[in-house]
Structures are given as structure tokens and as C-alpha cells.
Amino acid sequence: MQWVSVLALIACGCASQDYPTDSKHGARAVADSLAAAKLQQLKSLEGEWSIASVPEMPTGGTVTYTTISGGSVVMEEMFPGTPHSMVTMYHVEAGRLALTHYCSAGNQPKMLAEPGGSTEALRFSCVGGPGYDCQRDMHMHSAEFDFLPDGAVQARWASLEGGKPSHGVIFNLKRKS
Question: Long-range pairs for 6-14 at CB < 8 Å and ≥24 separation?
Fold first, then answer.
């Protein structure tokens, strides 16, 4: 009987495709239209992409983008089924685009997109995360996405360790047919 109640609540709460952007919807409203537009840009990546060869994965790899949670979250899964498998969740938080990166290094840095800017380039910087010291421990510290005119995407991730840049990688993404 409890399952029926839970399922009914889920069905009622998840009926909409996207969270509205006007203030009459209260807590679900997206305060910053630019943050909403940036999330929409990430939603446009829905599907499977190939990753050009990178040092960590010399044979390349795959990344998938899926819009979930009633349109309020974009889930990115890199290198599924490999030891380097990672998930990043993108959403709007307090009027800014945010991400939490579930890294193969075992930590979860949280980043916020730079305010302003455009939807053709997204720039994120680390604001913290559970279980590690941003000034001492190794973690992904920044992420940048450039949406190229030919439909490709270039993603750059950089890590920090001991308060200094320690590693960076560039992913050239092309949509799979």
C-alpha cells in the first residue's frame, strides 16, 4: 500500500518536461534566464558522442548526455564500462549553472559556471566538495566547454593538487550518427 502512495507522488511530481522559468511557479522557477539557457545548451547534447583519443584512453571513448529529473538535470557519463567511468550532473542552483563531477579518482568536486557570458562557451570553477581539501588534495578544479560552429564540442578539464595545476585533458567530442 505504501508503494502505491509513493508511486502516486512520483507520478504527480514528475509530469512536467521542463521546469518553468516564470516566477509564478515558486520554488521551481529558474531565477536567472542565462543559467537556464546554459542548461538548455547542455540539453542539446542529448545522445551519444565519440571522444577523440586522449592519453588516458588511447583508443578514444564515448560520452552520453541524458536529460533527467523532469528536465532539471543533465547527466553526462564518460567512458561507461571502463575503469575511467565518470558521471557529471549539471543543474541550475541559485541562479547559476552548477555541476557535481563524480570522478574516477573517488572525489566529487562541485563547480559553478562563471556568471554572465554566453551559451557558446561554458566555464566552471570548483567551489568545494565533500571529503577533500581544495587547497591540498587532488581534484578536478575547472571545466570548460566550447560549442563549435560545426556541431562539435571541445571540453577541457583541469585538476589541482597541492594548490597547483597538476593535470589537464582536452576532449574533442563529435556526435555519433
Answer: 13/70, 14/69, 14/70
